[in-house]
Design goal:
3 helices; elongated
Length: about 140
């Protein structure tokens, strides 16, 4: 008897080919043969997971729909109060002084002491100006 798969000679009455392991009596699984890989199933499940994650991310990051509000025509009698009924405008505040550019930190103690003294003097000047401006 010869194997229908590989063509090698097999003993008469043998159920499987000694060379390739094919079933010589028809039907049934070949012993020792590897089962089909489930790699395709793994890729399909992973693909579904990626699509679901992308859809969820889009749903979370998409802008919310804007509801259209009904427009109410303005009533000219109520639209704006009379000029005498308006609150007086607040006077404009003076522009803040320009901020000095940052400087590199002092390296020696004399420079540090001078910087601290200059900073203390600046604070005292600003506090005096604030007190003078508040007593008007």
């Amino acid at each position: 008897m010869f194997c229908s798969q590989c063509g090698k000679q097999a003993a008469d009455g043998a159920r499987f080919c000694p060379a390739c392991g094919a079933n010589l009596q028809g039907g049934g699984a070949v012993p020792g043969a590897k089962p089909k890989s489930s790699r395709g199933l793994i890729f399909a499940v992973a693909g579904i997971f990626v699509v679901a994650a992308a859809a969820g991310g889009y749903a979370m990051l998409a802008p919310a729909p804007v509801e259209k509000s009904q427009s109410v025509p303005p009533n000219p009698a109520v639209a704006a109060p009379a000029p005498e009924a308006r609150a007086p405008e607040k006077p404009a505040e003076p522009a803040s002084p320009a901020v000095a550019e940052p400087q590199a930190p002092a390296q020696n103690s004399a420079d540090k002491a001078a910087a601290h003294k200059a900073l203390d003097q600046k604070i005292e000047e600003e506090e005096a100006a604030a007190k003078a401006g508040g007593k008007k």
